[in-house]
Amino acid sequence: MKFPDFDPVFLRIGPLQFRWYGLMYIIGFIAAYFIIKAGAKKKHLPLSKDDVADLIFTVALGVILGGRLGYILFYDLQVYLAKPLEIFAVWHGGMSFHGGLLGAIAAGFYYIRKKGIGFYQIATSAS
Fold first, then answer.
1. Domain coordinates in residue numbering, the chain
2. Which residue among 80, 92, 107, 109 sits deepest, i.e. has the most Cβ atoms within 10 Å of its Cβ?
3. pLDDT number for residue 126
């Protein structure tokens, strides 16, 4: 099977490069904000607009940190043990879906526990 050959960078400004997958992260987080905000209002959850923004920010951090940590642990641990500063070289790539998912779940649980909201309440807010 031949995969499409396209440039992963959609915008270059000097040394800065903006990649398609980064754009998709941003679009996903923005969409999640509006979906959760509407669901919270519909279900009368005790979440203000700022609370929803804080939830999205916390989960976004969980996705990014978990995705990076997952990549390091599951795919290239030996490289990062030999060169630990490469952990911070995010411009070299390296995110894992399952690490990001676990990070998002952990961050979401942390946030709703801190706010005193039940998991079921928040999980069903988008339905």
1. 34-123
2. 107
3. 60
What's the pTM?
0.83
Beta strand 16-19 pairing with 9-13: antiparallel
Beta-bridge mates of residue 21: none
Helix/strand/coil for 48? coil
Residues 6+ apart with CB under 8 A from 36: 47, 52, 55, 56, 122, 125, 126
Distance CA 28, CA 17 (A): 20
36, burial (CB in 10 Å: exposed 0-12, middle 13-18, buried 19+): buried
Flag the least confident range among 8-17, 66-75, 91-100, 116-125.
116-125
